[in-house]
Amino acid sequence: MMKAKSGGAISTLTVFVVSIFLFRSSCSSTARRPVSGRRSLLDNGVGVTPPMGWNSWNYFHCDINEDIIRSTADALVSSGLAKLGYTYINIDDCWAEIQRDAEGDLVGDPQKFPSGMASLANYVHGLGLKFGIYSSSGYATCSGTMPGSLGYKQRDAATFASRGVDYLKYDNCNNNYTDPITRYRTMYEALKDTGRPIFYSICEWGDKHPALWAPNIANSWRTTDDITDEWERMTYIAHLNEYYANYSQ
User: Fold this and answer.
1) Which GO cellular component terms, listed alphabetically, does the Swiss-Prot or TrEMBL entry include (predicted)?
2) Does residue 65 come out as left (phi exceeding 0), alpha (psi in the -120 to 50 range) or beta?
3) How far apart are alpha carbons 245 and 249 in whole angstroms?
């Protein structure tokens, strides 16, 4: 973990490689398929290589704002990490108001993001970086501080595209126990309908083994529950992924 100070705000450059999510799953290692001859990529024009960059959640949780995102984007560039391929600046949960606007659209929290999300995306793009956002496939996000996209997938996908989003992390909280394959597929279709190439990251926690069904609808899919910045936790998750290694795309 590397910290960078800019304008008095401390931002954490937690560099991540999402390739650990790119696995085809089985519950039993005895059911593994052969590795050779498989290389399928989602036909949305992104994700040819694993995405690398920064996500706000593990360090800041809900304590995010426009200054943090801007200073972190600046630090990715000034540190030289952007030149090495760390190009995603991804905002996680807690970025929107608790209520949608009169037309049903998600609205950035004006206290945290006074310039608006489209303006922030433009700033990130101006540095040669890519802009990521977060939602959940339920009626609310995991923090409970903003609406989820359940029942609003087409509208939210269009909103993300219009604001210049390049990456969507799509969580699994508050989903009313609805079928995950249906929930995640409909968002994939909604994103595709926008015509904008948006990296689609399924954050289903591995509950329903998304590696069995996600390769055709997502660029990456999560295979386990949360990771933390502890060696024991990271090695534990690495061991869990032993089941998936022979199915990697």
Assistant:
1) plant-type cell wall
2) beta
3) 9
| 178 located within any domain | yes
Q: Are strands 130-136 and 167-171 parallel, antiparallel or unpaired?
A: parallel
pTM: 0.84
For the stretch 85-133, pLDDT in tens is 999 999 999 999 999 999 999 999 999 999 999 999 999 999 999 999 9
Q: How far is CA 175 from CA 41, 151, 184, 216, 218, in A?
A: 27, 11, 11, 21, 19
Residue 19: pLDDT band with limits 50, 70, 90? very low
Q: Pick the catalytic residue: 193, 207, 226, 229?
A: 226
Looking up residue 132, the CATH number of its domain turns out to be: 3.20.20.70
Catalytic residue among 171, 179, 207, 229: 171
Domain membership of residue 110 (yes or no) is: yes
Hey, which residues does 147 pair with through a beta bridge?
Answer: 140
Q: pLDDT tens digits for 129-172?
A: 999 999 999 999 999 999 999 999 999 999 999 999 999 999 99
17 part of a folded domain: no
**Model confidence pLDDT, tens digit, residues 207-217:** 898 888 899 99
Among this protein's residues, is 226 annotated catalytic? Answer: yes
Specify the residue for token string 């996600």. Answer: 214
